[in-house]
Design goal:
Shape: globular
CATH class of the largest domain: Alpha Beta
Structural class: alpha/beta
Oligomer: single chain
Distance between the termini: 37 Å
Bound molecules: pyridoxal-5'-phosphate
Order of helices and strands: EEEHHEHEHHEHEHEHEEHHHEEHHEEH
Helix content: 25-40%
Strand content: 5-15%
Number of strands: 14
CATH architecture of the largest domain: 3-Layer(aba) Sandwich
Length: 412
């Protein structure tokens, strides 16, 4: 396997040292093949918001498993999950299930072009929308980590239609629209950025994009693969009260199995085959196991008090991290929303990817190793958000803050 992994960031290239090979996961914990236990803040990169291997999810999967793993035909479970997504996410009136976030973003881009008859798209520096050709321009963590501005093999003719702007910069977006009249199909972004560390939208940014796209006959697309059902049950769009035309989802929606989805206004989604002419298909899409994990996960999340608990757990953690760093005399800036958090080892503020690059990546690498030695598994990159789950207990958070105190003191 190239680099010994199935996805690049897992190789620990940017923090040094060797990757940890996992044997099993449960609740807030992961165990490696040597039997060491880690408190896990990666959560399979987002899906494990209820805690790893939640007993109810496992039980539901076992029941579904008895009926078979894939039908290649419609199943009732797809309708159930579709209904839950439509109920939860304000922009979604119609939804198509796929197998990954990458697939969802690829399809949504085709749909943006099909619907508007325009070829160009605006994305933001540091935002990741999967590994499809047209999105591999200033694409954040995985790519940034390896120091690849772009990837070889991506034709220039493809990315010529991808325009980029700094995050939180409405003026830059305005200029791009002015320079490319009637040519831009839409704007796609992470409404809260988790692939360049953790960057939040400034007041007015999302609202401004909503207005600019409308004025220019372009679509607004929120890539909520990471933020969907994490920033709130209805995603970032629900939390910030800005409704895009289209939304992509993944991670949490599959509850640990491979699921992605894209959805939006019925008028636009009706372009998708077989309702309309825009082709997109998938052999394993909507398969019963993946739908079951998604349904059960959303059911758990829908329960009273879930997001309040996630919010307070995460706030306690990030406050502890910031305080520990400051006590050690280190520069730090950090933040959390709901079950997502991040910090940079620099003075801040961090408004965009350019600012994020000021973080001390050498120090982060040392911190990462010191934390591993203390049984804490952080994302192996200075440019990835952290994730908490319902399974992270007060004791877990206290133990984590204590490990941060020791580790910060060590690297200061
Ligand atoms: C993870 C992620 C993707 C890609 O999803 P995969 O399932 O890894 O293909 C796309 N967009 C965002 C915002 C993501 O965080």
């Amino acid at each position: 396997m190239p680099g010994g992994v199935s996805s690049p960031v897992r190789a620990f290239k940017s923090v040094g040292g060797q990757p940890i090979v996992f044997d099993r996961v449960k609740g807030s914990y992961a165990w490696d093949v040597d039997g060491n236990r880690f408190i896990d803040y990666v959560g399979s990169w987002g899906p494990a918001i209820c805690g790893h291997s939640h007993p109810e999810v496992i039980a539901a999967l076992q029941e579904t498993l008895e009926k078979g793993t894939s039908f290649g035909a419609p199943c009732e479970l797809e309708n159930q999950l579709a209904e839950m997504v439509i109920d939860a996410v304000p922009s979604v009136e119609m939804v198509r299930f796929v197998n990954s976030g990458t697939e969802a973003c690829m399809a949504v881009l085709r749909l943006m072009r099909a619907y508007t008859g325009r070829d160009k798209v605006i994305k933001f520096e540091g935002c990741y929308h999967g590994h499809a050709d047209m999105f591999l321009v200033k694409a954040g963590s995985g790519v940034a980590t390896l120091g690849l501005p772009d990837s070889p093999g991506v034709p220039r003719s493809t990315t010529a239609n991808t325009l980029t702007a700094p995050y939180n910069d409405l003026e830059a977006v305005k200029e791009l629209f002015a320079e490319n009249p009637d040519a831009i199909s839409g704007v796609i972004l992470e409404p809260v950025v988790g692939n360049a560390g953790f960057i939040t939208p400034e007041p007015g940014f999302l609202e401004g994009l909503r207005e600019l796209t409308k004025e220019n006959g372009a679509l607004l697309v929120f890539d909520e693969v990471m933020t969907g059902f994490r920033i709130s049950y209805g995603g970032a769009q629900s939390r910030f009260g800005v409704t895009p035309d289209l939304t992509t989802m993944g991670k949490v929606i599959g509850g640990g199995l491979p699921v992605g989805a894209y959805g939006g206004k019925a008028e636009i989604m009706s372009m998708v085959a077989p309702a309309g002419p825009m082709y997109q298909a998938g052999t394993l899409s909507g398969n019963p196991l993946a739908m079951t994990a998604g349904i059960k996960t959303l059911e758990l999340l829908k329960q009273e008090g879930t997001y309040e608990k996630l919010e307070s757990t995460t706030q306690k953690l990030i406050s502890g991290i910031i305080q520990s760093a400051q006590e050690a005399g280190l520069n730090i800036t950090g933040n959390s929303i709901s079950a997502m958090f991040g910090f940079y080892l620099c003075e801040g503020p961090v408004r965009n990817f350019e600012d994020a690059k000021a973080t001390d990546t050498d120090k982060f690498g040392k911190l990462h190793r010191a934390m591993l030695e203390r049984g804490i598994y952080l994302a192996p990159s200075a440019f990835e958000a952290g994730f908490t789950s319902l399974a992270h207990s007060e004791d877990d958070i206290d133990a984590t803050i204590k490990a941060f105190q020791e580790s910060f003191a060590l690297i200061a």
